[in-house]
Amino acid sequence: MIKVNSLRVDYEELTAVRDLSFEVKEGQIYGLVGPNGAGKTTTIKALAGLLEPTYGEILINNIDPETHPREAQKYIGYMPDFAPVYNNLTAWEYLDVFAAAYLIEKKERPAKIKYWIDKVKLSEKAKVYIRELSRGMKQRLVLAKTLLPNPKVLLLDEPASGLDPIARKDLRDILKEISQDGKTIIISSHILSELSDFCNAVGIMEKGKMVVSGSLQEIRSRIKSKGLMIVRLAEHNEDQSLKLFNILNNSTQISGLQKISDIEIRASFLGDAKEAAWLLAQLVKQNILIAEFNVKQDNVEDIFFKIGAHEVS
Length: 313
Ligand SMILES: Nc1ncnc2c1ncn2[C@@H]1O[C@H](COP(=O)(O)OP(=O)(O)OP(=O)(O)O)[C@@H](O)[C@H]1O
Ligand SMILES: [Mg+2]
Description:
CATH architecture of the largest domain: 3-Layer(aba) Sandwich
Bound molecules: adenosine-5'-triphosphate, magnesium ion
Radius of gyration: 24 Å
CATH topology of the largest domain: Rossmann fold
Shape: globular
Number of domains: 2
Number of strands: 13
Strand order of the largest sheet: 5-6-7-3-8-9
Largest sheet: 6 strands, mixed
């Protein structure tokens, strides 16, 4: 859905992004992470068609936003890191102005605005002037505005900054929900633990370059990341404990088998979800009473720190 080839963006003297190539597939929720000044905002602005690439190519749904800005805009919902808001409008009026700009038909506007204003939990503030809203409320309002035209591609630059913990959870729930109907989302954030909750792909930028990019599964296998398998028996039973140990020990995907207690075993697991399910089925077939069977894979945060520690080859 999004393709970037050898992108370079210069601000006069400074090259903010160089030789950047990556791809985001339809339906992916792609976390764009990296330290301050890495070039995330610059990349997102270029994708939104707001910054002209100095060099390179961007395709959104096979459309080049530089040569066909209007067509590309139809697909894109962009939420900037610092959104300009119109202080002398009420929350409702603000959404109404944008609904008109998005060419939503007049008779459909009230229902659509109500839907999104409820969704971001601002209905109580619908008639309040924007200047009287808190920072997090303004942020929610801008999110509602971005989602209003139902764009296929969402470009969100640090949408969670300024939100309280409840609003952040609401934001995650909204994004999870809208990602179910095939939307493609790029979201930049410094809150890695929160991205881990719902991103299925990640791009790590550093000094204007992409260090690693791809689905979490691809990256995990590229950095040979092992999952931590934890298996607990329902009760202490020598016979079952021995069977469990032997079955796990025979798997080529398992290494570093460790007996933590009479009922708990831990190991490194290299396989995928299907292989884990197959192993669990073997245990059940042997009438071993399993109370817990868990494989913890590296999440966005774990991957970020591993790559930062140059574990990628
Ligand atoms: N309008 C601008 N004019 C000149 N240089 C800029 C401008 N905007 C950004 N830069 C520079 O471009 C580089 C990349 O900035 P960018 O805002 O893309 O980083 P970022 O990854 O979004 O950082 P942050 O995590 O702080 O938001 C930085 O060195 C920054 O100083
Ligand atoms: Mg930024």
